[in-house]
Amino acid sequence: MTDISIIIPVYNEEDSIAKVIKGVLVDVKKEEGSTEIIVVDDGSTDKTKTIVEKLMRKHDELKLISHRINLGKSEALTTGFNACLGDIVLFMDGDLQYSASDISRFIQKINDGFDVVNGWRIERNDTLIRKIPSRAYNYITNVILGPKLHDHNCGMKAFRKDVVEDILLRTGHHRYITSIAYQLGYTVSELKVKHHPRKHGVTKYSSMTRFFSGVIDMFALRFQLNYSNHPLVIFGSLGGIFLVFGMILGLLLVWLYLTRIPGGTPLKTHLPALLLSVTLVIAGLVVFVFGLLADMISALKKDVEAIKLKLGK
Fold first, then answer.
1. Total domain count, the chain
2. Residues spanned by the domain of 267
3. Which of 13, 35, 70, 86 is the most buried (most CB within 10 A)?
4. Mean pLDDT of the chain
């Protein structure tokens, strides 16, 4: 049984992938037990795939999985997670910015009892246009999702196998994999790693684009993690607030009308307020019913998962 799985997601890294693999092969030989190295080629259009295939003929522990088109890092990691067999799973980028010599330190940290070990680029060799948004992103992630780390988006992390089996990554959620594990109750530690300047190829990400989309995804993920199992909590509360304010406003309008009898105050003089009252009441009912349906779907999902568990599927 394989003890350690090293996953390397790559996209157009023909100038660096051979050096990365050779470095990993050297370091994993220091470890006891068996090791597999899984390269996930995410639709590369250069010679990356060919280079890995040549190396596979010399090294039995090396495996290659290829996507026909570029799907993104989250999908590449998911492919690697589904294929790996190791009790400890580590992934690292294939651009030579991370040192394979740090692998053994990650494995030791996992063996010390942690479920997740997140890398920390203590001396990050990137441009300011990437560093500044990254610092803001780390601060926001610490506040919204946790845990408190220095470098959430470090491209080198290690996990126990049961952690990656418990995590479902959606597009772009590889940035929050440590936070998801933390929210699920797994223990997280941090490890300082070496970070080198990129010598080959170009970065696959736009820092500003990734920053803004990342913040939006962060709020959505927080909602999913906190309320996906009990959606009626949030929708019921929101619907109740709309209903209460709508009814209070409606009663106020009725009171204004009745207190002005016999002349009365025509309701048409308060038409905007009347329309707002009706809108709030209807919106409150709709949101509440939506939350009720979502809660029923969530309960049904749990029942299906329980049945699958009993059937051993």
1. 2
2. 231-311
3. 13
4. 85
| pLDDT at residue number 313 | 46
User: How would you classify the pairing of strands 35-42 and 62-67?
Assistant: parallel
| CATH number of the structural domain spanning residue 95 | 3.90.550.10
What are the pLDDT digits (tens) for 230-288?
A: 777 778 888 889 999 999 998 888 887 777 655 555 666 778 888 899 999 999 999 88
Q: The tokens 């998801």 sit on which residue?
A: 180
Per-residue pLDDT at 188: 96
SS (H, E, C) the chain: CCCEEEEEEECCCCCCHHHHHHHHHHHHCCCCCCEEEEEEEECCCCCHHHHHHHHHCCCCCEEEEEECCCCCHHHHHHHHHHHCCCCEEEEECCCCCECHHHHHHHHHHHHCCCCEEEEEECCCCCCHHHHHHHHHHHHHHHHHCCCCCCCCCCCEEEEEHHHHHCCCCCCCHHHHHHHHHHHCCCCEEEEEECECCCCCCCCCCCHHHHHHHHHHHHHHHHHHHHHCCCHHHHHHHHHHHHHHHHHHHHHHHHHHHHCCCCCCCCHHHHHHHHHHHHHHHHHHHHHHHHHHHHHHHHHHHHHHHHHHHHHCC
Which is higher by pLDDT, 206 or 248? Answer: 248
β-bridge partners, 121? 193
Please, are residues 21 and 36 in contact by the beta-carbon 8 Å criterion?
no
Same domain, 59 and 110: yes
- In this structure, the answer to whether residues 128 and 178 fall within a common structural domain is yes
Residues 163-197 have pLDDT tens digits of 999 888 888 788 899 999 999 899 999 999 999 88
221 token code pair: 């993920």
Comparison of pLDDT for 133 and 18, the residue scoring more: 18
Instruction: Based on the fold, state whether residues 26 and 45 are members of the same structural domain.
Output: yes
Decide if 63 contacts 38 (C-beta within 8 A): yes
* Contact between 174 and 78 (Cβ < 8 Å): no
